[in-house]
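Researcher: Next entry in the queue.
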Amino acid sequence: MDAKAQLDSFIDKFTPEIASLTRKALSKMRKRLPGAVVMVYDNYNALAIGFAPNERPSDAIFSLAVFPAWVSLFFLQGAKLPDLHKRLQGCGKVARHVRLTKLTILDDPEIVSLMKTAMDRARVPIDPNQIGRLVIRSVSPKQRPRRPKPAKL
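Model: Structure for this entry, 153 residues:
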């Protein structure tokens, strides 16, 4: 199975709504970050899709984290970003995120500005002239369910 088919199979594990949002967000991120190496980690807790200038995970700038009930855009070097509008969530020493409750959040001027600042401040920039590629980095043999548990009646 090639990397694209493998990624599609990972996304298909989620509800149709989450899978659709993930695919649309992934498409938008690829267009916004030409030349990025897209690294996929089908982890225990979530599906993580990172965007980096190379195959070094420590150089990644963004990632989409797909959970059973939501998708988040992570700014992997976001703790030092100036977030004047307080859009970023989290309190760790490195990363921050914004929950994508709808796809249009990726086009919100405040989020676009934060993304531009993150790209400008990246330790290693993404070269838009390089050929982007998709790399499956890891697949956890044990995973939490990818769909929310049904509500109890």
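Model: Residues 28 and 107 are 9 Å apart (CA to CA).
Researcher: Noted, moving on.
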